[in-house]
């Protein structure tokens, strides 16, 4: 199996060296393994605590590029980023993707419009914020920049009950995914968090959301969202992929 969702310690909330992730991925038998650390943004007066600084981007790319060469006989490493959709910085992102020759970027709509003022998607409980999440997600997907939509159901993390608004938002995410041909990610870090009892609300993967994805027959990709080399587990991915396929989901492997 392939995984395109891996972080590095540069984001400040992941552990392990780049090499440790790669060695684990090789040992586990991954054929394609992509790094998609939290994207920096060219902030002038703000230091995010959940992502690398823009000045670290070259060393991130350089480090993975070196490992890519070193391990080219045993694994196909890809270099990407997990990015929000911040309209003010989209042209910067577009330039970076071209200039640094990134293999791909994925959408992680953690904050809407602006990290400094935007609400964290995982804390949303009100309908107007859910629709804002939907709106920014669709605008992001329509840019054509993002290879897939990471944990699209992050928006339901803190919600207590899956109501008509949640249903409507889910359906429209599926419709956009299908119309644009962009897979939705079934996020295995969320599975780990749920097992650890870390969600007070519905959490993610959100069962009701995924029922709609199945009914709508949107494409699904499984992502480890590894924040530690320990998260790089082929057996876990295969088990989840097997279960989802048996339940009728349209699983895609590549991007
Ligand atoms: Zn993270
Ligand atoms: Zn991630």
Main features:
255 residues, TIM Barrel, four-stranded parallel sheet, 39% helix, binds zinc ion
Low-confidence stretches: none
Multimeric state: single chain
User: Major β-sheet, in short?
Assistant: 4 strands, parallel
Enumerate the strands of the largest sheet in spatial order, edge to edge or round the barrel. Answer: 1-2-3-4
End-to-end Cα distance: 12 Å
CATH topology: TIM Barrel
Class in CATH?
Answer: Alpha Beta
State the total count of DSSP E strands. 7
Envelope shape: globular
Helix-residue proportion: 25-40%
**SSE order, one letter for each helix or strand:** HEHEHEHEHEHHEHE
SS field, number of helical segments: 8
At the fourth CATH level, what is the homologous superfamily? Metal-dependent hydrolases
What does it look like?
- By secondary structure, the protein is of the alpha/beta class.
- The chain has one domain (9-251): Alpha-Beta Barrel (TIM Barrel), CATH 3.20.20.140.
- It is built from 8 helices and 7 strands; from the N terminus they run H-E-H-E-H-E-H-E-H-E-H-H-E-H-E.
- The strands form 2 sheets. Strands 1-2-3-4 form a 4-stranded parallel sheet.
- The radius of gyration is 17 Å and the shape is globular.
- The protein starts with 17 loop residues before the first helix and ends with a strand.
- One zinc ion is lined by residues 7, 11, 13, 38, 227.
